[in-house]
């Protein structure tokens, strides 16, 4: 692999982590020329995902420095390759987690590129030409058009950016469990953070009865009055958890801290499904009896494929669903990262790369 190839001739200004201190500093680098299957995008906004923090500090031991984070990218197409038909100059577009895949395996063939064994991410990956991928903390990006989605005109570009990660992460379980057009179900959302608040919005938009399950009593008003949740359960209250036993058809667990799944499973009806999208550092507690006695299912889910991401974006445009954000300028990235590490954000940070904040 190489940071660049001879085809990397476009000089770009960005922001990168240079070592495991995680500090983000200005970085000048080169992008490849726009190829026949590529679109070149002027980046307007890029969300800050918790994954960015992990890569910046090399928490997982796989970071290739310098690392330009960012996989929640929105911008405008400024150049298209000769093979590109679905995008034109001036189109509003987005890029999420995926930069490349094999395009030949069963998962790529079924629009599940996110499960391809040869998947390469938008940053800290290795592209087809052997170069290291650099993400959206930068002024522009060149992307294969097959991994780009269109942003509906009705959505603000800043608050749409986190949908490319947080949004698709919680949308996929709704679709996998036939909750987009089903009769009204009782669903639970565990955790009201960057993922959970978008999940509540999806649940209400799709016509379901939504219960937020949280350890924080202070979030009840936010969940009910502003996000529209129907009920709120304090998970540390034995009385509340007992009263809600066997009341939910489906639960989406968005919490990234270690916790026991036993009490959560008891909230499900017989045959209920619990999908996990949070990724705690330590193994989760999964007792057998709540599974066996309730004939319940526990499954995991990650981001979605490109067609699914486009479907999500279109539904967000239809239902006016966006992420709740705080915008920051590039010189505030480190401060935002510090706050993110303390979970001090409601609910996602977005970098105003081009200085065009709509808020």
From TrEMBL:
SMART domains linked: PKS_ER
Superkingdom, taxonomy of origin: Eukaryota
One Pfam family here: ADH_zinc_N
GO terms of biological process kind: lignin biosynthetic process
Cofactor: Zn(2+)
Keyword flag Metal-binding: yes
Subunit structure: Homodimer.
Protein name per the record: Probable cinnamyl alcohol dehydrogenase 6
Source organism per UniProt: Punica granatum
